[in-house]
């Protein structure tokens, strides 16, 4: 089991890493502005699922497998980078629209938001660096048992990411009226696109 200092250190490090603006949070804000809080939280669910995937990789040593299958790992990196560029293209050319706050959100839109959150996170170099490089410096992964992973790390990770993501979502929803103009929406979407292109470039450089 983790002691109190490890729990606090991990929580603080994860919160800081999550709060730093990146492709995930950029997409979260854009989705929350365009689709409302429910759509934002669905995307956040995908982000959390992606983080838990990399957490599991780190805990169960699957990062070592990636090192032994370097060709496959490089293919995944390129695929993730291409997907980020595709999302950037969608954001860049997205047509700003007037908000309809009372419009019911379709189930397909919510599912799309969750899938986008997952794929963005799996291709996010910041997430990869945190779990596969920084996490071992914070926690002795050799001492982490399946029970510790399931009963402590998984719920702790989900709660921290939920708290940080909720701040972004509620803040975005709160300022929706400031982004009601088409020009403001276009700036937001193109800013998100630029962040995703930068993340894709970072994946291929490192």
Core attributes:
206 residues; mainly alpha; 9 helices
The largest sheet, given as strand count, sense and whether it forms a barrel, is: none
Query: Which residues form runs of ≥5 with pLDDT under 50?
Result: none
**Nearest-angstrom radius of gyration?**
18 Å
Mean pLDDT: 80
SSE-based structural type: mainly alpha
Order of helices and strands: HHHHHHHHH
GO molecular function: amino acid transmembrane transporter activity
InterPro entries: LeuE-type
Pfam family, one: LysE
Organism: Pseudomonas eucalypticola
Descriptive report:
This protein is mainly α and 206 residues long. The chain has one domain (4-14, 22-96, 107-205). Helices cover 80% and strands 0% of the residues. The chain has helices at 4-19, 23-35, 37-59, 62-68, 70-92, 107-122, 125-138, 146-174, 182-205. α1 runs antiparallel to α7 (125-138). The radius of gyration is 18 Å and the shape is globular. It starts with a helix and ends with a helix. Keywords: Cell membrane, Membrane, Transmembrane, Transmembrane helix.
Brief summary:
With 206 residues, the chain is mainly α. The chain contains 9 helices and no strands.
Topology:
Elements: H1 4-19, H2 23-35, H3 37-59, H4 62-68, H5 70-92, H6 107-122, H7 125-138, H8 146-174, H9 182-205
Helix pairs in contact: 1-7, 1-8, 2-3, 2-6, 2-8, 2-9, 3-6, 3-7, 3-8, 5-9
């Amino acid at each position: 089991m983790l002691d109190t200092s490890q729990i606090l250190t991990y929580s603080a490090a994860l919160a800081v890493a999550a709060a730093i603006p990146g492709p995930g949070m950029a997409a979260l804000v854009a989705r929350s502005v365009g689709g409302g809080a429910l759509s934002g939280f669905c995307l956040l669910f995908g982000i959390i699922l992606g983080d838990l995937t990399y957490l599991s990789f780190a805990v169960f040593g699957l990062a070592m497998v990636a090192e032994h299958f370097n060709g496959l790992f490089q293919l995944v990196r390129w695929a993730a980078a291409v997907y980020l560029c595709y999302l950037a293209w969608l954001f860049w050319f997205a047509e700003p629209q007037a908000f309809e706050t009372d419009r019911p959100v379709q189930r397909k839109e919510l599912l799309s938001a969750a899938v986008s959150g997952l794929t963005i996170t799996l291709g996010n170099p910041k997430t990869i660096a945190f779990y596969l490089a920084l996490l071992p410096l914070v926690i002795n992964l050799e001492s982490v048992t399946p029970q510790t992973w399931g009963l402590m790390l998984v719920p702790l990770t989900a709660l921290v990411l939920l708290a940080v993501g909720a701040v972004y979502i509620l803040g975005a929803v709160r300022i929706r009226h400031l982004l009601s103009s088409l020009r403001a929406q276009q700036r937001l979407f193109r800013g998100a696109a630029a962040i995703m292109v930068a993340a894709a470039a970072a994946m291929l450089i490192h």
